[in-house]
Amino acid sequence: MEMAVDKTQFHVLAVDDSLIDRKLIERLLKTSSFQVTAVDSGIKALEFLGLNDDDDDEDEQRDSNSESISSDEDQDHQDLGVNLIITDYCMPGMTGYDLLKKIKKSSCFKDIPVVIMSSENIPSRINRCLEDGAEEFFLKPVRLSDVNKLRPHLMKGRSKDIDFPDRTRSGCLISTGN
Amino acid sequence: MRRQLAIMRKSLFDQGHLDEQFIELEELQDDANPNFVEEVVALYFRDSARLILNMEQALEGKPFDFNKLDGYMHQFKGSSTSIGAKKVKAESTLFREYCRSGNAEGCVRAFQQLKKEYGTLRKKLEAYFQLARQTGPMETASRPK
Distance between alpha carbon A142 and the CA centroid of its chain, in Å? Predict the structure, then answer.
């Protein structure tokens, strides 16, 4: 079949407003043989995914200088093949938690595993993120041993791709109600 | 020169300027990314200069905007932690405690102390990397590969 699981590189989208931490997470991920795209905000992450911030929420009519992303074009994102999103919690504007919620609300992206990072060890924060769909919560500074924990989540997602034939041609998973 | 470099490196740890996070950075360095640590540290200095300036300006206003100050220090502490700047991180934590309790005098004192530690670290790391460049490809002598 088309999918050579071992050979295909996983693509991670990293989100962090700190320049230093972005460089660090990028290096950590590349050392672990991931392909990386690093952005400095939740908004940029959504833009990269092709998810217009308005998609789920018709209240605001934003004038599209973000080139009009219609729901048809959402399907193109699949070519970017983001397999995992790792995001800082504390960011100005959209927090990592806000980003997590948006991803999980999105029909196209809700199955992408999301990992949250934070410099602050606040149990209620950690629990909330995990309860609302984050796969893991890493305390900063993130280490190679943390990044090694990512692969199982990615493999799980990968095998899910193969086992579930309910895909549109564009690859967007139809909600099977699980 | 290698020996001098090793001695310098050891003293950075022994004197408490750096912690094991710095070693984590060194472990990420390889032939394909031979200057990774120096690059990260350079970024840190650049970013820190900006934050310190912001904090200095914020400390000129009266009364202090403690939220703003805490925000800057959160960023500064974060990046200091990421490179393993142990003493600077400790001073940042102290500063934030004063911020949170609205202790203006404490903030000013802590900030002076922080700048001092940061200045020392910067000097030492700059000297270290300068020597490292002269010495050639860096050997992290402590860990056998």
Answer: 17
